[in-house]
Amino acid sequence: MCLLSGAAGGIDDPSMRTVVIAGGTRGIGRALADSLDADVIRLGSADADLTSVTETRALIARLPDRIDALVLSAGCFSRRRIVTGEGHERTFAIGVLARYLLADGLRPALERAPDPMILNLCGVGGIRAGRVHWDDPTLTRGYSLLTATMQVARSNDLLGAGFADRYPGSPIRYVLYNPLFVDSGMHRHFDQPARALVGGAAKVFGMPVTKAATPLKALLDAPPPAPLTALRRGVPVPLPDPADAARLYELIRTTVY
């Protein structure tokens, strides 16, 4: 379902839950969208360029004024460093800035729902190598696909902690979820022979996207009671450092405003 038809569905049938999935046209996001008994608005590249702060803000303005759940799963991978027209490193722009803008911008719409939730698919409890490069977040030095991907994973952990700290009275439950190794097609972004090796390993050891979507659907159907929950394939893990979260929010504030 495209953006416009999804939005219209929510208006025509107010009894249905409205779920917005950024990255809902492929991978885990698509599998989750297919499994939901709800009015699903699948956001993909045809709806907006989420690497653009300007387009992301314009997209937010076109979405319904009541949303029951927001799923953040959009991202991109690149073997080389690409800078957007607005001067942001592309992986960080779609994986961090867009997720921040969507959660913050859609907060009023979410708070109009009876049981609102944000589900952020990220790297919580994952590889310890992931860190935010505070002195060089656009990775002008030492860029690699892994470095950029892991910075985004760590940053999204902090987005959840920052949201909960910034809006302590909000009814929105924010859930950070790391599905671990999923056969989502990421191997296509590697050069050979890594592409074949990673792709083969994903087929053998990775979880199919349809199976990975099952616990996500359960979370959307019954959100945890806590303002912030961090899960690694369904198992609770320690929450991110709120001091680092505040630092990331300040970094983003000076970047996009």
TrEMBL record:
PANTHER family: ALCOHOL DEHYDROGENASE-LIKE C-TERMINAL DOMAIN-CONTAINING PROTEIN, YALI0E05731P. It comes from Actinoplanes xinjiangensis. This is NAD(P)-dependent dehydrogenase (Short-subunit alcohol dehydrogenase family). Keywords: Oxidoreductase. GO terms for molecular function: oxidoreductase activity. The keyword Ribonucleoprotein does not apply.
